[in-house]
Each structure stands twice: as structure tokens, then as C-alpha cells.
Amino acid sequence: MRVSIVGAGPAGLYLAILLKRDDPRHQVTVYERNRLEDTFGFGVVFSDETLENVGEADAETNDALARAAKRWEEIEIHYRGTVTRSTGHRFSGVERKTLLELLAERARALGAAVYWRQEIRGLTDCDLSAADLIVAADGAASPVRDRMSEQFEPALDWRRNRFVWLGTTRPFPAFTFYFKQSPAGLWRTHAYQYAPERSTFIVEATEETWQASGLDAEDERATVAYLERLFAEELEGHSLLANRSIWRRFPTVRNARWHAGNVVLLGDAAHTAHFSVGSGTKLAMEDAIALAAALRTGAPLAEALAGYEAERRPPVESLQRAAQASLEWFESAERYHDTEPIQFAFNLLTRSLRITHENLRLRDPALVAGIDRWFAEQSVTQSGEPVPLDPPPPPLFTPYRIRDLVLPNRVVVSSMCQYRADDGMPNDWHLVHLGSRAIGGAGLVMTEMTDVSREGRISPGCAGMYLPEHVAGWRRIVEFVHGESQGKIGIQLSHAGRKGSTCRLWEGEDEPLPDGNWPLIAPSPIPYREHNQAPREMARADMDRVAADFVRATEMAEAAGFDLLELHLAHGYLLASFISPLTNRRGDEYGGALANRMRYPLEIVTRVRSAWPGGKPLSVRISAVDWAPGGMEAQDAVEVARMAVAAGADIVDVSAGQTVPEAKPVYGRQFQTPFSDRIRHEARVPTMTVGNISSAADVNTILAAGRADLVVLARAHLWDPYWTRHAAFELGYALLWPPPYASLERYRPRTR
To answer: Rounded to 5 degrees, what are φ and ψ at 412?
Structure first.
């Protein structure tokens, strides 16, 4: 097979090696527009896992890299005059030029042709059209890909921070982060050794800081001089080195497709991952491994390329999500700059959401013991409750106070609609559903969305708090939770608005009832979908009536004995549809700017707060983003949270989406936690977080890093009502069982 590879970076050269090693008859040619000596950058980072993958694919390449690499296990975080060290992180640094020399030498030794200073801009250059396979490994700004943009549909997201890639003669003993304040603003530095007397020194700043420094108008030499002065103490007399070291913005590259005809994308041409996770070279070389393996099968080319893309996309997109979380953390580092050093360090180490409390405990038990002790001490101060400190409990098993309510732990059972009520009346299903999860150990159990009127229901099976008999029905459940568990119970009040009068979930999600529909109201007369019922635009009289319904339901919730009340201002229901510009098209004082759109929801918050006892907490659930063009964005959510708390809410339950059916959420592990994190630190309000959280390790990580005060689990609790008790067992924490289950104290289940 004749293979033309455009780009002599790690992806292209390593693919050439693997192809020639697999079959010497392959005619492999590599074209690179630059000279080898023009290599941009200084050192690249490999994890031990990546080197193992390289070793399995080609042992000789791995041996050469291992000989050239500088290894380290420690990370140092310099922040506010303190140094936090974490060990157990096994990485290697290799000079980029050395890496390319090793790969090029190995490729040539196997018979591949490598041409430097050969510009390729289209498929007709250098007779590429004669090749059986054309590999575009020509970087994030790939000319080959961009010439075929209709086929690949590339998307480049140019990030807002500025960074410059430098070297230094100082040999850093660990992977080192500096966070340095100057009159211009906060500077972040990523530094790591890659050779005996050489280290990479990447400096990053916000656009505002960069411009305030004056470096936006200076050249490379001025940049080096400025940063040598700024980091004189950190450089310890060593100089900075430049190599085409211009200030850049990072492009996150994604493509709808990675192959078209006989052209395939590899490495940065297909995808990028921010340098803060050190994975660009990893992804490139693992792409080469996967593509070589797909071609090795002997399948027809189209089938092989499709197989390569199908295999690689899931791990690449997973790592891109982690890299996105990491780059956003660094973009917003100012947000965390007043947190305590130990929490700041833990937050940084777990920023990508890939390293958890448990992962870090295995690597560095002393550091995690320190963060657990610190967190427990903060809990004692915050809750006023005693907490053992030697050893401290895992973060999820610390108490938390909201007004007069003290929760025994930080786990919350999410509000999950059951659709089993009759005219709003809770029954035995609700008793078992909520009661079993309270016995299961959760600190707070939330009712499903409970509607304040018959017309405010989603479906005929929705729970309600609008008839006198509802009070007794709910009181039975509340008394069971209080009498048989240590947990507390809250009620979520809502009105479905334009999303009402639909079938139960299993009968057809969001589908209109076949008969017996009731009229709907909303801020604007926009149906949820074209075939759903169009709501009537609310007049002031409608607003007054609904507000009275919320107040009445609040008073009934107090009569039923609930510990906490939550207002549902999310997911496109009535109050949420006032907040989102996608569902509120009003031209009066309740529409337009965010402050106007919040006017009616805040009226409800204020009136409910007045009707709810002063010692009991009030929560609001919000949708941080709509995941649709023109909808709510994360910065809007910060303002919504501020306004809600100013109106009387005590904590913000941060969810997202479900406002419009055409939304395109970005799913992943803990995918909504970053919104909670931002609101908690920018609005300075307590938060609860939700969104694909399932493990005790994730819960502990979120809490210890300060991304939320409480963690809300939904499907995990549907799957396992005793999730909290099982988490305690997993973590070795003694959580007492109710007396009828006392025999379980001596039971040890088989785990395999």
C-alpha cells in the first residue's frame, strides 16, 4: 500500500514506524513543511500508561524514549506563599526535538521516506493523489483538513486565555505550578523538566492580564525579559529560553468525521487536548497505534478507516471532556484564589474530573488525609456538630447546616418523578420509595416534583400539595423518615406550566394526553413542541392565583412537617420558563432583560420565604444553561443564583437544560458540576450539584474540592436505595444501621 503522511509530528512519524514494521512492503512517505531544527516547543509529557502503550506497539521506540526521558513523581503547587507537594504521579518529560529525531531515525531505518521543508496544501501537491491512503497529521491548523472542510466539518474553539511556551535552564525537580499575582493580574505557570539542564516553562494569563502587562504590544525578546523579572525568585537565577515563543490562544479542535474517501485525520488535525493535561502527544501516538491496527486487519480501506474512527472516538472524546474541564479551570483560576491552600491544591489536582479523591488517596495517602482532616474541621465550624478528627470521616459523611437544619451527611436523594399519585395524593409507593432511601442513609431525601395545583401537574400521576388530604398523606411519609432514620426530608414545589397535561413517562415522554387535557399557562404562548398544547399567556391575575397556590402549598408543607422546601425554577417548568429567553417572549415588565425575566420567580421566592418558618431552609433548583442557541448561559446562572439568595433562598440546587426539546447537552461524568462550582465561587452562595454522579469517590472529590456543599444523586439512588450505606462500607466508615437491621453490623458481603 502506498501511504502519504502529511506532517512529521509524533502522530505521522509513529504511524510510519508502525506501518513499515507491520509490512515492509508498504511504501510510506512523510512530508513536513518545517525543518527538524525548527521544532516548536521544548519538552513533552508522557504518563507511564502512555509509555506502556508505546512499548506494546513498538518496543524499540519505547526503549529509545525511556533512555531520553526525565522522570518524576511529585507535583508542587505554589500558591499564596505556600507549597503543597503531592507524590505518586508517574510521568516522564522528553525534549520534543529529541522525540522527533528518535521517531524520524526509527522510521527511516525501517524504510520510510521522510522529507523536511516540503509544503503540502492540497491533495495534488507532491503527487499525493497517487497514494492509496493520505494521512493528514499536519496539526491543529491542518491545510489538508481545511481544504476538505465540507467532508470533515472541523470546529475550532479558540479559548480566551493567552499562553507562551518557553524553556528554562532551571531543572525543576517536580512538575511545578506557580500562581503569581502581579499588578497586571494573576499568572499561571506550568513547569517540568525534560532534560538534565532544561525545563519547559509555560506561562498563561487571561486576556485582561496579558493586555494590562503591555505584552500584547511587545515582541519575543520583551516577553522573555518581562517574565524573567516577574519570575526571578522562581527561576533562581536561571534564564528563560525562547523558540518561536509567541503569545497564543489554544484551539480546541473537533471534527464531525475523521475520514473521507482515502483521507484520514490523525492527531491534532482530528482533535486537540489542552496542554494542562499533557495529552496532545499521547493522543497523537495512540491514534497512530489504532490506525495501524485497523489497517493491519486487511479489511477494505473504507472499512478499516471506519473501524479506526469508531474505536478511537470514545476515548478521545472522553479525554477531550477532561481536557476541557482542565482548561476551563485554568481559565478561571482567579475564581479560586481566596480558597485555602490545601483545598486549592486538591481542586487543581482533581480539576479534570479524572482523578478522584480515591485515586489521589492511593497515590498520596498523606495529602488526602490532610484534606479530609481540614474538611472535617471546616464542617465542625460550619455545622456546630462534633466530628471525629483522628481519623476524620470521608467528606461525604460530615454534617452540614442550613439555617436551623443540620443534615447528618452530604448525600441528597434527588427529586425524581414517580407518576404514581392519584389526583396528587401520595400513597404506599411514595412511602416505600422515599422511606427506603432514608433508611439507606442519605442525609436529605427530596420528594418528587410536587405540584401546587391540579392544573400545575405534568401528568395525571404527578404528586401534589393542593388538597387538604394531601397534608396527611405526606405527613405519614415525613413521620416515617423522622422516626426510622437519621435523615431529613424536603419537598420540591412546582408548577409544570407549558410542559403539563402530558402522559406518564412510560406511556410517552412529553406526549400530550390522548384525552382529558387541561388548559396550560406560561409566560408566553409557545408550545413545548409543535404537537403539544399551546399555553395561554399569563395575565397578572394568573400570576396572583399561582403565587397564592405556592403560598398555600408552602403552608401545607409546614403542616406536614417537612424539614426543607425547594422551589423548582428549572427544566422548563412554569417558573423556569419565565427565566429563559427561549420561553419568555413577553414585552412587559416580566420579559426582556434577565432582571425583568426574574421578576415573577423572585416574587414567588419572596412570598414562599415569608410563609415558610424562619428556622427552616429554602432551596431553589435552577437550570444553569439551556444548551440551545440564544438560551441561558453559565454567566446568567451566576446572576440568577445571586438574585434568588437575595430574595430569601438559602442554597441553590444547580441543574441544567430540559428547557427546550432541541437542546444539545454535553453529557459526561459530573457534567453539571462545573456550573455548581462556578456559581458557588462567583456568586458566593451554597450549592447542591447534580448530573451523572454515581460513586462515593466522585462525591468526596466534589465536596473536598469545594465544587458544591451537597451532592444530589438520582439514578444512582434508583439503582441502589442503600447507596449511602454501601458507600460507607466501601470507604471503611462505620455508619450504624437501624435497630431492626443490627445483625448487618457483623455482615461482610462477598465482593467477588
So the answer is: -120, 135
Helix/strand/coil (H/E/C) assignment for every residue in 681-721: HHCCCCEEECCCCCCHHHHHHHHHHCCCCEEEECHHHHHCC
pLDDT score for 39? 67
The domain limits of the chain are: 1-68+97-155+254-319, 366-746
Radius of gyration of the chain (CA): 29
Distance CA 264, CA 5 (A): 10
CA distance 31 to 137: 10
Peptide bond into 392 cis (omega under 30): no
The list of the chain residues with pLDDT below 50 reads: none
Pick the CATH number of 366-746 from 3.40.640.10, 3.20.20.70, 3.40.630.10, 3.90.25.10: 3.20.20.70
Residue 413 CA to residue 117 CA, distance in Å, equals 61
First to last CA, the chain: 48
Residues carrying an active site annotation: 573
How far apart CA 98 and CA 36 sit, in angstroms, is: 10
Per CATH, which fold does 1-68+97-155+254-319 belong to? FAD/NAD(P)-binding domain (3.50.50)
State the angle between helix axes of 634-646 and 673-682 in degrees (0 to 180), rounded to the nearest 10. Answer: 50
445 close to 490: Cβ distance less than 8 angstroms? yes
Q: What is the DSSP letter of 424?
A: B
CA-wise closest residue to 58 among 21, 101, 102: 21
- Cell, residue 270: 482530528
- Which burial class, exposed, middle or buried, applies to 653 when counting CB atoms under 10 A from its CB (0-12, 13-18, 19+)? buried
Q: Is 466 helix (H, G, I), strand (E, B) or coil?
A: coil
**In the β-sheet with 2-6, what is the strand arrangement from edge to edge?**
113-115, 27-31, 2-6, 133-136, 263-265, 259-260
Whether 280 contacts 268, CB under 8 Å = yes
**Would residue 118 be called left, alpha or beta, if left means φ above 0 and alpha means ψ between -120 and 50 degrees?**
beta
Contacts of 557 (CB under 8 A, 6+ apart): 465, 474, 491, 493, 565, 612
404-408 long-range contacts, CB within 8 A, separation 24+: 404/615, 404/616, 405/488, 405/563, 405/564, 405/615, 405/616, 405/617, 407/443, 407/444, 407/487, 407/488, 407/710, 408/443, 408/486, 408/487
195 bridge partner residues: 198
Buried b / exposed e across 173-201, counting CB within 10 Å, b at 16+? ebbbbbbbeeebbebbbbbbbbbeebbbb
> Are 443 and 411 within 8 A, CB to CB?
yes
d(C-alpha 277, C-alpha 409), whole Å: 33
The answer to whether 516 and 460 have CB atoms below 8 angstroms apart is: yes
Strands of 362-482, DSSP E: 400-402, 405-407, 411-413, 444-451
Which residues of 495-580 form beta strands (DSSP E)? Answer: 521-522, 536-537, 564-569
Amino acid at 87: T
If you search the block for the grid coordinates 473504507, which residue do you land on?
302
- Tens-place pLDDT, residues 570-593: 999 999 999 999 999 999 999 999
pTM: 0.92
